């Protein structure tokens, strides 16, 4: 395999860096660079809309007086900067700008998960053609070095499966609900704390985690997925009662992003799941992120830490900047396009809310047995009114698609007051001796 | 910073690899290479004593017929292999062989923690002079990519502290004891399972973990330590009663290797410690390894997984081989020699076994108050005979050296039937929101 090295950076000659976006992460990158004074890296330009407001902000005090502030992207593209750090997010107009930056000979460091999930492969090709770097360690799990850890440390394994808690907002909401709070209150708190947007859909409905799952699959399993083909399920349908039943099952509930390679087919899904309290997934509280990668030879490896926030994300960005400055490359292995299914063989948790009448359990168990799904347990707590009774059925492992067929007929029953909630249950497979 | 790239490996030209040592890990490396057939890596030589016995072993079936087997190291050193993989352990004669290999233009991949802890800096200099690789991802925590994760993913942070469970044997023993077994039985089991040597000292007394702690400190905190200067404390003094008292304190006991940079001084120690059940350290069971790295900007990052065993370790070795094959380098930051102290400011757990008489508690508390150490709790369980009474005192945070001064006088009391056991208690500092 031939890999030519980019022109080496001369001794005492730092790479010149432009930041695109001077929000929370951008300010933190400036602060980390100012605190550590890496001789290899010099911040020279900052681009932002309404740049004057940014230049007079508190965060700007960490920025050297010699830095050029601009709201004109062409100033950056025509400058002599060596690396563009993109911290703005979204596909447009950022994708076009970064293509131009690469063509102009500038390496790119980005924290933009949507961009990398949807356009990463195309951008990487342009970067390779120009012998430049395109690094995105900050795009998944902020300060948790899961991307560099997998790229260099697990390339010798055959990773077959990964699962992660990669959206801090959902984890904050669900771990607060685990402790007793209700969804609406916690979402409001999350919005006030700045963890959730005013439109929380990207987080709670799984779009953010899905982009990250696609990036992780590419790096861990060398599999290119179409993000839009990956099934997502919202966490907004989870209620207090589900945590209560989960606890009876020695589980809690987390938004889990998981992917499993089965021959040429990738099973992938972002959804709230029941996770055993004994599983690493249940360790993760608040805005923490966690990724569990399972290799054929190495077994389960767990990465966890602060997945969001300015400074943890800045650590990933600055680490990437040092890699560009020292022209460090990681192992490249061929990536293949993989078809995706959301179907998983798993035990399922089914929560019904019914106007109780004789024969309901029999009808549900009949519908399940008709598709060949075995009931593992039936949980019905005391203290709920008969006319609005929540109860839970768990199944032995079967395909999600099988369960969905059974639920389609059950959901049409008159006594069903809500759409039944169907969650996959995570099984702990790799136990230490 | 100038870094010249080694002559690039031509397309379709694999690096030629020699294995030194064909034991458990060597056999696994051969198996992983055979299973994955990386086009960049070709196993060509195997060195071992009594090579004929190895060549006819079950593990040798994964080895291609074209591979040269030898018990003569000069055959390897004079061959055209590009990389020598050292899986033998110890300083002699391995160090001399690897120096010769580097001088002969061969890169080195090793799993040898003692060699890297004691001689790593010297060997790295020779490697750099010859523009070769010296990689040792397998030297700490086997298949857990803590070394590559820190090298590339945390280089942008300022790591101030790390703690780890890096000896699988001790973790197996202590987590079995946590579940009720006694030390002697578990040690015997560990020996029969091949987790512990017939002389278990390297593991249970902390020598193995100490070497790994020095390597982690070098990579995470750019601090070069003299391994012999790092304090170690055996786990063999831990008894069932300690787990029982630990549980009352919402803790368990683990062999913890920790280092904390305080200005120019490194606090470092390998010792059994009380760790809160709520701490990631308590998650680690059996032979699992775990490392928690704390950065000024990124907070706590946790790595965990299978730290030992042939195949997990082989993943680290093969990942390093791919890095050599593709000439991938990691970020280099200047390393500084640091003085070491074993002193930590921490709460302490003190367990006494006494022939009970009035005035003992008063004497102990007097000795502690004389040095300015405050008692936090006093635990005395029912059901033990008065003439051989175990009880526990915990202190508020104070320096270990202070406690040791108090214990020196207490230990001389006639009623003391055993040397008091003194364990530091780990505090959980970085909590997720």
UniProtKB/TrEMBL annotation, chains A, B:
EC code:
1.1.1.3
On whether Metal-binding is a keyword of this UniProt record, the answer is no
The lineage's top-level taxon is: Bacteria
Quote the pathway field.
Amino-acid biosynthesis; L-threonine biosynthesis; L-threonine from L-aspartate: step 3/5; Amino-acid biosynthesis; L-methionine biosynthesis via de novo pathway; L-homoserine from L-aspartate: step 3/3
Which InterPro entries has this protein been placed in? ACT-like_dom_sf, ACT_dom, Asp/hSer_DH_NAD-bd, HDH_cat, HDH_CS, NAD(P)-bd_dom_sf
Q: Which UniProt keywords apply?
A: Amino-acid biosynthesis, Methionine biosynthesis, NADP, Oxidoreductase, Threonine biosynthesis
PROSITE patterns linked to this entry: ACT, HOMOSER_DHGENASE
List the Pfam families hit by this protein, alphabetically. ACT (PF01842), Homoserine_dh (PF00742), NAD_binding_3 (PF03447)
Q: Which GO terms describe its biological process?
A: methionine biosynthetic process; threonine biosynthetic process
Give the enzyme's main class according to its UniProt record, as a single word: oxidoreductase
Domain named ACT: residues: 349-433
Q: Which reaction does it catalyse?
A: L-homoserine + NADP(+) = L-aspartate 4-semialdehyde + NADPH + H(+)
GO MF terms listed in the record are: homoserine dehydrogenase activity; NADP binding
Q: Which family does it belong to?
A: Belongs to the homoserine dehydrogenase family.
NCBIfam families in the record, alphabetically? PRK06349.1
Q: Which PANTHER family match?
A: HOMOSERINE DEHYDROGENASE (PTHR43331)
Protein name, as recorded: Homoserine dehydrogenase
Taxonomic lineage from the root: Bacteria, Pseudomonadati, Acidobacteriota, Terriglobia, Terriglobales
